[in-house]
Amino acid sequence: MVETKKFAMVVSEGTFDKAMMSMMMGNTAASMGLDTHIFFTFFGLRLLKKGSNPKMPGMFRFFTGMMIKKMKGMGIEAFQEQLTMAKDLGIHLYACNTSMELMGIKKEDLIDGVTILGAAAFLDIGADSDMQLFLG
Amino acid sequence: MEKNDTLDAKGLMCPMPIVKLAKKMKEMPVGAVLELIADDVGSKEDVPAWCKRTGNEIVDQRDEGNVFYFYIKKIQ
Predict the structure, then answer these.
(1) In sequence order, which ranges of chain A are alpha helices (DSSP H)?
(2) Among A89, A130, B33, B39, which one is least packed by beta carbons within 10 Å?
(3) Pairing of strands A131-135, A6-11
(4) What is the ipTM of this complex?
């Protein structure tokens, strides 16, 4: 039996590229049997709002639709579908409580199945992990 | 190569072949062999890495031009 490894990731940006990267990396990790934990903070937190639809950064935001279409053609699902997949794969999703306060995001604005916690609680998870990544 | 099932992942780019492979293998019984067909160049490295990490075994593989065939036995 292969030992189960733990993977902790922080997502601090809410643009399309970071959003997709977090889901592709997370869903691959979970598919490889890694116990995967993702903490969404600062602008990354907005990704956990119900129906979030991240856009490419800056002027590139006008090309978001084109990117989604191109990725669909490569068999890669859009962000919301990937988020559903993440939950189905048992990925642990965390919302930063300070970012919620900062951005005026309430618990009921977030998708179901998200755990709200602070930096210390997530760092405790990170300290127990075999791999940590920061997407920001 | 003897196989129990086939997963055609042609046209899919990383990480979708791996995500679909994991899902498919979950449904298969221990000892069964899955034929995975992919044309994503990354899969040549990704599929062995997935097998190593999940404790499953590649019992055979071959390339036909730019299409890769993997035969993966479910060990656990």
Answers:
(1) 16-31, 64-73, 79-88, 97-103, 119-127
(2) A130
(3) parallel
(4) 0.88
Domain boundaries, chain A: 6-135
The pair of three-digit structure tokens given for residue A53, joined into one six-digit string: 């639809």
User: Active-site residue among B14, B16, B32, B58?
Assistant: B14
Q: Do B11 and A75 touch (CB under 8 A)?
A: yes
Question: Confidence band (pLDDT; 50, 70, 90) for B76?
Answer: confident
pLDDT above 80: residue A64: yes
Give the pLDDT confidence of A80-130 residue by residue, as tens digits: 999 999 999 999 999 999 999 999 999 999 999 999 999 999 999 999 999
CA-based torsion, A41, A72, A84, B76: positive or negative: negative
- Identify which of B12, B23, B53 has the shortest CB distance to residue A75: B12
Q: Which of A113, A93, A94, A97 is nearest to A105 (CA)?
A: A97
CATH of the domain at B62: 3.30.110.40
Out of B15, B19, B76, the one facing A1 most closely (by C-beta) is: B76
C-alpha–C-alpha distance, residues A98 and B69, integer Å: 49
Domain that holds residue B52: 5-73
Architecture of domain A6-135: 3-Layer(aba) Sandwich (3.40)
Distance from CA of A94 to the nearest CA of B (A): 22
Chain A CB contacts of B49 under 8 Å are 32
DSSP state, residue A104: T
pTM of the model: 0.93
